TrEMBL record:
Full protein name: Alpha/beta hydrolase family protein
Organism: Siphonobacter aquaeclarae
GO molecular function: hydrolase activity
Coiled-coil intervals: none
Gene3D superfamilies documented for this protein: alpha/beta hydrolase
Amino acid sequence: MNVLIVPGLGNSGEGHWQTIWEQTRGFERVQQNDWETPVREDWVARLDEAVVAAGTEDVVLVGHSLACCTIANWAAAHPRKIRGALLVAPSDTEADSYPTGTKGFTPMPLNRLPFRSIAVASTNDFYVTPERARQFADAWGSELVVIGPAGHINVASGFGEWPEGLVLLNQL
């Protein structure tokens, strides 16, 4: 299984579970040209290049935040057969709480994903309501796992290595 780490806006820094997984598990990070003011078409293109280079069918994508939207947009534009995706803390790019500076990430993609996926949401994420997280998971055909009041499931919310996330990843 080839695991591709797909960070969201700002990249995932030191101490973030995605960074820890990359460093300790040998997973590969999808690199973007612009982490602060991303353009959807660019992020989707970089993701597609990484998936093709990894060998597609045995790939599992691990997205956080804006990366979940990127993965759904990528799946609509490039319906490649992959093993699956773990979609953690999907941000609602249409919400008033979403940061400015991104281009092309609205409206939120609501296409069914052509691969197995698990969406992980919190009950108190500043960037998505529980209702919208459920709407995204239902539209994408994702199994939804709600982990309670866990903020944005990042370093600021107290998430380091996050072994429970690895359990979910192994289900894919």
